[in-house]
Amino acid sequence: MENSVSELKNYELDYKGKGEDLFGITIVNWLLTAVTLGFYYPWAKAKRLQYLYSNTTLNDEPFAFHGTGKEMFKGFIKALLIFAALYGVLFLFLYLEMPGMGLILFYLGFLAIFPIAIHGAYRYRMSRTSWRGIRFGYRGDRKEFTLEFFKNIGLTIITLGIYGSWMTINLRRYLLGNIRFGNTEFEYEGDGGEYFVMNLKNYFLTIFTLGIYIFWWQKELFEYYVNNLSVHKGKENLEFRSKVTGGGFLKLSIVNFFIVIFTLGLGYSWAFTRNMKYFLSNIELEGNLCLDTITQTEANYNDATGEDLEDALDMDFVL
Amino acid sequence: MLFKTTARFYDGKTSVPQNIEVFLDIKQDKLSFENGQQKIVWKNTAIKFSKNNNNLICEHGNDPIQQIFISDADFIKKTYPILKSKGHQHWYDGLVNLGFMNHLLIAISLLALIGLSYVYVLPWVAEKAVTIIPESYDNEIGQLAFNEEMLLNKIDSSKTKTLNQFASELKLNNKKKLKFTVVNSDIVNAYALPDGNIVVFTGILNALQSTEELAGLLGHESSHVNNRHSMKMLCRNLSGYLFISAILGDANGVMAIIGDNVNSLNNLSFSRKFETEADNDGYTVLIKNNLNPEGMTKLFTRLKEEETIDIPEFLSSHPVTDERIKEIQKRIKSGKHNTIDNQKLTFLFQKIKE
């Protein structure tokens, strides 16, 4: 054991899915969702996620998604009730002829859904994800995160959006920093100022190059996400390194564009597969973290309300 | 039947892979292996079997989840079909394993079905749905669109007055009170809003040469109001949007569609069916008022002259005027009509033309 701490280990992250298989799942999901007038959607989503996770591998061993359609259906109903309650309050105040008050409460409530959704989605997704039978987990505190969220939103509004870069990084640091994989801990070390300068630089370069530079901007965004991420367990560490290139992004986007256009959209599954493959196979892991000695620590959590709220708000899972 | 192979076992407590020997007993429908000193037996009915790349994964339990990974290709080839036949495959996987050609076929059929219901079923349903929407809603959005339009346009008040007099002399078969407004603009156009507001541009008034042409135009536009064509189109667009978003699993932007439509009510392209209906009503107005129905065809000829670009008919939401002229000519030939000179209308028409 003493030895393994200092020794560098080999890690390989990859995506092994095939466009054809994803296409099959997409079509079957589509058919079942259409036939059931939409009710199959949570189950369809579970199947899709199960497929995507199980084809993502670390050292040739797949991840697994254990979420079920039933959980997400229940979550969907709860999310629906939350939205209904929100509109209920609005209409109650309209009925009482206090539209101003009603609108203020409505918007505040609506804004408050965001941190609750993000928090809930992280807890659910992480708890439902595993590798070698060891669950991920999210240890963030809802109240703490909501306060952090409102503090950052407030500052972003006051600074007319400039603080947005800091907000993104602060929230990311909180969310990713609270992720656990068994007894290992994730850490994100981004800095708002650095992120702001990077975006500013890329913004102008993109304008000067009439948009072409956007692929190199994407590359830097991806790098900023990945390169600041690490996993720790005692003295053992695992660092993430991005190998993506601007040229790679350019080629990926152009080829995907043609795949989707020439198949009238049906080729989306192949384009998506190409993305997954490109992103995951271009993340390098370096360090001495022993993958064989991780122990189960995270509790089960099967309330999918946050997940469904996020879905209803059309938010991406990754922040 | 007993199958045996080596596998990796994860006990759900640590991430260490444990190499085990697995026995799959088909007859007793169970799976057994030794973990350390302990002999473990799982009932196959309690296991979730799934094939992933080159692995057969056997998942057992909920908290913790225990997994066995079998990579032995020969073993998988022999046992998986048996497991499948014994019902250890989810029906969903059966559908997923139908193969690419079948999936493509399903996709194309679904697309065709969606396309067909979008083109044929949906408009019909949407039009029927209009009857349950109260007329007051027509008035509200019509008024909203009118106010917005008039902010940007200059009203010719004296011509507006004369045009209203002209219209009141006509029997327009209107169910709703109509209000005509003349707007100063070179555009050769007129449009009807659902609340009974009909806006006529000076451009089209200048192009018209006779009383019956104007009467035909007003008859045409009032038909749009009478038949709630705007509302029908709105319902159609909205239901089309809802339909598509239901399929794509996204219901945002409904409000945006309503907003868009309110803003573009004036150039809302009526479907060909609605245009033909309005043309026929315009013709009826001319007959009823003892005006020469040729006014209708003349009106179209004027409009056609103004149209510089030829759009193929199937691309255009407005039927090409040639088609409309032919259809009206057919009606003129088939019916009888008396023409009486209406001095008052002629006088008002001249006044508008000044």
Key words describing this protein structure:
heterodimer; A: 319 residues; alpha+beta; 12 helices; globular; disordered N terminus; B: 354 residues; 7-stranded antiparallel β-sheet; 3-stranded mixed β-sheet; 13 helices
Parts with pLDDT < 50 across at least 5 consecutive residues of chain B: 250-255, 263-268, 309-317
Give a quick account of the main beta sheet of chain A: strands, pairing sense, barrel closure. Answer: 10 strands, antiparallel
Count of separate structural domains of chain A:
1
Number of helices of chain A: 12
Approximately what portion of the residues of chain A adopt beta-strand conformation? 5-15%
Q: Approximately how much helix is present in the residues of chain A? A: 55-70%
Largest sheet of chain B, if any?
A: 7 strands, antiparallel
Helix content of chain B: 40-55%
Strand order in the largest sheet of chain A: 1-2-3-4-5-6-7-8-9-10
Compute the CA-based radius of gyration of chain A: 21 Å
Which residues of chain A sit in consecutive blocks of at least 5 with pLDDT less than 50?
Answer: 1-5
Spell out the blueprint of helices and strands.
The complex is a heterodimer of chains A (319) and B (354).
Chain A: H1 2-6, E1 13-15, H2 19-35, H3 41-54, E2 56-58, E3 61-65, H4 69-95, H5 99-127, E4 129-131, E5 134-138, H6 142-158, H7 164-177, E6 179-181, E7 184-188, H8 192-208, H9 214-226, E8 229-233, E9 236-242, H10 246-262, H11 268-281, E10 283-287, H12 305-312
Antiparallel strand pairs in A: 1-2, 2-3, 3-4, 4-5, 5-6, 6-7, 7-8, 8-9, 9-10
Chain B: E1 2-10, E2 18-25, E3 30-35, E4 38-43, E5 47-52, E6 55-60, E7 66-70, H1 73-85, H2 91-96, H3 100-130, H4 135-152, H5 157-169, E8 179-183, E9 190-192, E10 197-201, H6 202-207, H7 211-226, H8 229-248, H9 254-263, H10 272-288, H11 294-306, H12 321-334, H13 343-353
Parallel strand pairs in B: 8-10
Antiparallel strand pairs in B: 1-2, 1-7, 2-3, 3-4, 5-6, 6-7, 9-10
